[in-house]
Design brief:
380 residues; three-stranded parallel β-sheet; 14 helices; 41% helix; globular
Length: 380
């Protein structure tokens, strides 16, 4: 009981600063779309067979490229709900634009890095080769709104260095066409490659800016518009990249109230804890901070993920704050374990049904739309 009270107080305090509104606005932010994680159920089983416990990390256990079946099931649910303006639920799909070109890297003896657009990665697998058509349908229907999450979900320099050192597990994962093994999988894994911007070194900032330039250009060419918002991988970035983001048209930074700032090359970090919704960074980028977590794939079965999310939504609305829900891609993926997708979509349906019952004046928005609303009201 006391722990629940503490949790409520903490969430209330985090919702007090920043932008306020009497409108009941709900945004769903979902990261990792387009990124490779676990390539297939067959590869997952091969890891297990070799004694590599990929079942211990939810992202290795469930996450994969979204199949057409995954997207159809998700979109059918999103189309079920309409807000006070007769608008469907919209998923802000934070997208990784490229994945490593494993074959080409191998061909050049791991001496040079190459990447391919995520659409080319989709074409390599039977289950995903037609799924981009579903992306386009979702975008056209107004229920799937891509925003920029990075060129890759990968710290390229560190990954290539470990490949060149012939690190055993890194090479095994490479042979299976992935890079996402973590210490949760095997305690011997000391290097996590998932943080694409996990350095504060000046030379790396230069490299990161080039990567971001290329990724944002790819984004605009693919989707036909600039991404107004950006969510750094693993919520980690150095403020020195922000000016470059602004020059590329980014106006809003998605994430949490807490920001992890690298002080060196992925070893030491400073934690900034005041990225409140509507506030701006020194580079004049506006923070869009998440205040509700709906990540059922990350919790054990006895955790009341719907009840926890509803409590957080109630606190946010009582504090006159928009609800910004964190809901990563892995929750909707059934390629590795179909029950993961089916169970979580049922939970999401329950959550949205309850939200609409309790708050009939709810309004659904994407992240960039919320950012533009806050900017307009502040300038008005």
């Amino acid at each position: 009981m006391f722990q629940n009270f503490q949790k409520k107080i903490k969430k209330t305090l985090l919702n007090l600063p920043g932008y306020h509104t009497n409108r009941k606005i709900l945004v769903i932010e979902s990261d990792d779309w387009g990124a490779v994680r676990m390539p297939s159920k067959e590869i997952y089983n091969e890891f297990i067979k070799r004694g590599i416990r990929v079942d211990k990390d939810p992202y290795c256990r469930y996450d994969s490229l979204a199949t057409a079946e995954d997207l159809e099931a998700l979109f059918e649910l999103l189309m079920t709900f309409k807000d006070k303006n007769n608008r469907n639920v919209i998923l802000t799909a934070n997208t990784i634009m490229a994945n490593p070109d494993f074959e080409k890297i191998e061909k050049f003896g791991y001496e040079k890095y190459f990447y391919e657009p995520f659409t080319e990665t989709l074409k390599r697998k039977t289950l995903t080769q037609n799924s981009y058509e579903l992306w386009e349908q979702g975008i056209k229907s107004g229920i799937f709104k891509p925003q920029f999450h990075g060129r890759e979900h990968l710290y390229v320099k560190k990954w290539m260095h470990q490949l060149q050192k012939n690190d055993e597990l890194t090479h095994l994962a490479f042979k299976m066409r992935t890079y996402g093994l973590t210490s949760d999988v095997d305690s011997s894994i000391k290097v996590n490659y998932m943080g694409a911007l996990n350095s504060g070194l000046k030379s790396d900032i230069v490299s990161f800016n080039q990567i971001l330039n290329e990724g944002l250009e790819m984004f605009e060419n693919f989707f036909g518009y600039k991404s107004l918002s950006f969510i750094p991988t693993t919520y980690t970035w150095h403020p020195d990249i922000e000016h470059n983001l602004r020059n590329n048209g980014v106006q809003f930074l998605q994430g949490m109230v807490h920001q992890r700032i690298p002080l060196d090359d992925d070893c030491t970090f400073r934690y900034k804890k005041n990225n409140f919704l509507g506030k701006k960074s020194k580079s004049e980028l506006m923070y869009l901070s998440r205040n509700v977590y709906f990540e059922p794939s990350n919790f054990k079965n006895n955790f009341d993920v719907v009840g926890d999310a509803l409590n957080a939504i109630k606190i946010a609305f009582n504090c006159r704050k928009p609800v910004v829900i964190s809901m990563h891609r892995l929750n909707f993926i059934g390629a590795i374990d179909e029950s993961n997708r089916n169970m979580n979509l049922d939970l999401l349906e329950t959550l949205l049904t309850e939200v609409m019952r309790i708050y009939p004046t709810i309004e659904f928005m994407s992240s960039d739309e919320l950012g533009n609303l806050i900017k307009t009201e502040k300038n008005g």
